[in-house]
Fold this sequence. Notes:
Layout (H helix, E strand, L loop, with lengths): L2 H12 L5 E12 L9 E17 L4 E6 L8 E4 L12 H15 L6 E7 L9 H17 L5 H15 L7 H7 L5 E6 L4 E6 L5 E7 L11 H15 L13 H7 L6 H25 L3 H17 L6 H11 L4 E6 L7 E7 L3 H16 L4 E5 L6 E2 L5
Parallel strand pairs: 3-5
Antiparallel strand pairs: 1-2, 1-12, 2-5, 2-6, 3-4, 6-7, 8-10, 8-11, 9-10
Helix pairs in contact: 2-3, 2-4, 3-4, 3-5, 4-5, 6-8, 8-9, 10-11
Amino acid sequence: MDRHQLMKEFETCFGYKGERVFFSPGRINLIGEHTDYNGGKVFPCAIDKGTYGVVKKRQDKEVHAFSGNFPEVGTLSFSIESIEYDKADSWSNYLKGMIKYIQDEYGILPNGFDVYIYGTIPNGASLSSSASLELLIGVIIRELFNLDLPQLDIVKLGMKTENEFLGLNSGILDQFAIGMAKKSYAVLLDTNTLIYEYVPLVLPNHKILIMNSMTRRELVDSEYNTRRRQCEEALERLQTTLNVTSLGEVSIEDFEEHKAVIEDKVLIRRARHAVYESDRTERAAEALKQGELEQFGRYMNESHVSLHDDYEVTIEATDLLPRLAWEQDGVVGARMTGGGFGGCCIAIVEQDAVEPVIDYIATGFKEKMGYNAEFYIVETADGTKEWVNND
């Protein structure tokens, strides 16, 4: 993205020059899906597609926000002294939630600000455009007003915005991956303890391929919350015989020994995915540390099968893309990523095979689905930060 163009867009919107530019990445989850709210392991990395923000303080207490992705909405404005959720306020509710919870901790900010937002993450593609925006606003506020606000606290406020302000019972994966990321690394995170480890993700002979099914998913309106409730119910039943506080604490051996107490076949499948996926994620991270990329790819494939069979969060389009990828030489592994019910899939592909692999998948997808998928090659990225001139 061109910095000069971003500054120009700000000036067009607000009639004067912006001052500071920030960037917040999107994220992919290499493996460890639907484990974050179950207290299990996740293994995400940030990507170089994300959300840009150009900002300047105002003299009053208002926030004026314009998105280059939704120009038809126009400039949205609200007072920082009176913040309430309003569906009519569209995407600016993410800003409102972050500002509200920061002010709950630090008091009313001395000024509002004008902000121009532009995202390169396809909206609704399971690459965490919402968390990217939340972290962007949190870091902007910290830097504009010199707050002593640690990055991890911004991560937690982003999750709180999703859970309490917007009503989505998601876990901490997206915000953590985006806020705490380091370029050339993935993060192995225990979501139960928030203990994390950076694992080198250097792929000199391979590329990370994102395959967009072009089916937008809306997690608030989907069965996402239903899956969470099902896991909570399965956990309660397991707790009658196991001393655990989350499914992430349950070993595969203990699950297989005690799963009969769950009684319900659907709940058993949901819990089985959470338990096996967390274990699989830890094994996959270890494989990557040992340079065993082929084994890592096999774990990716197993994850997708579990998400399809046990957790049932794939749809036809997002199940088709990895299965087409598996048919091609040069594909190390492929799986759906994100909350499911649409969105994107990912694959790790040998560099020399990228073009033929994309051509094969694109052709097979169009023949089966009747429309085109989109494909992006991405690199890893740092977490949310100010974009200074030498970056």
